Amino acid sequence: MSLHEEVRTSKAPAPVGPYSQAVKAQGFVFASGQIPLDPETGKPVAGDIEAQTERVLANLRAVLEAGGASFDSVVRTTVYLTDLSLFPRMNVIYAKHFQGKPAPARVTIGAASLPLGVAVEIDAIAQVIKKPARKKRTTQNSVDRKQPKARAKARAR
Asked: Is 71 helix (H, G, I), strand (E, B) or coil?
């Protein structure tokens, strides 16, 4: 049995290299950095830092939800910006999506460049909050346990 499992969703861009969109391990989802790619076209979204940040966060949300987590369960993010003067504008969009308390820990790094010439990339670590649904099984023992109660009710009448 593996100690970790891959998280994959078609609602975010497919990995373009030897990495996973995210990995789930020990009750956490470790999401790879997301850039502002449209998951349907695989191409960067057009627009300013606000539009790029919205797309990055939509991709990140899809990956986290596929792993059973959410923005409310994020414990840490890393933001990469090619121009740190864009930080205040990126931060306005970021703050709209991370409104839970406490806010996640965060590191922001100025990067010389990012893939495909985009301006922002964000990764995250989140706690799993949703467990996979388990099928309810009816066993002979559970049926047998119910029968004495039914017999007792019948005798009481």
From this structure: helix
